[in-house]
Amino acid sequence: MRRILSGDKIVIATHNDGKLHEFSGLMEPFSIRTVSAGSLGLEEPEETGTTFEENALIKALSAARASGLPALSDDSGLCVDALDGAPGVYTADWAEQADGSRDFSMAMRNTEEKL
User: Fold this and answer.
1) What is the pLDDT of residues 36-81, one digit of tens each?
2) Is 75 designated active site?
3) Sequence-distant (≥ 6) Cβ neighbours of residue 110 within 8 angstroms
């Protein structure tokens, strides 16, 4: 079912300022204002999908329901053919440190080690 955007604001389901900036640039020619889920104080939902598409849908639906506004999201990661597509949707998990922060250099080192 296709819905038409009413109004001029959309939630970008992210807590990443860089990603918000990228999406804002894409929406600007259409005079659509963007606001991030993070700036609205929305919690990050658990990404339980097994595909990038499923995780993007989880994030967008969560932001739309919590904010009452249309929402847009994406999900991405590194897919290495020699590792049967790993880390894929688990790229962030490969970067997670004991304190909960993420170090993507560590994820790349983990990938190199597994290769």
Assistant:
1) 999 999 999 999 999 999 999 999 999 999 999 999 999 999 999 9
2) yes
3) 87, 94
Q: Which is catalytic among the residues 8, 17, 74, 75? A: 75
Residues 6 or more apart from 79 whose CB is under 8 A from it? Answer: 85, 86, 87, 88
How confident is the model over 70-114, as pLDDT tens digits?
A: 999 999 999 999 999 999 999 988 888 889 888 889 889 989 999
DSSP one-letter string for the chain: ------SSEEEE--S-HHHHHHHHHHHGGGT-EEEETTTTTPPPPP---SSHHHHHHHHHHHHHHHHSS-EE------B-GGGTT-BGGGHHHHHB-TTS-B-HHHHHHHHHHH-
According to DSSP, the β-strands at 9-12 and 71-72 are: parallel
From the number of C-beta atoms within 10 Å of its C-beta (0-12, 13-18, 19+), residue 11 rates as: buried
Distance CA 18, CA 5 (A): 24
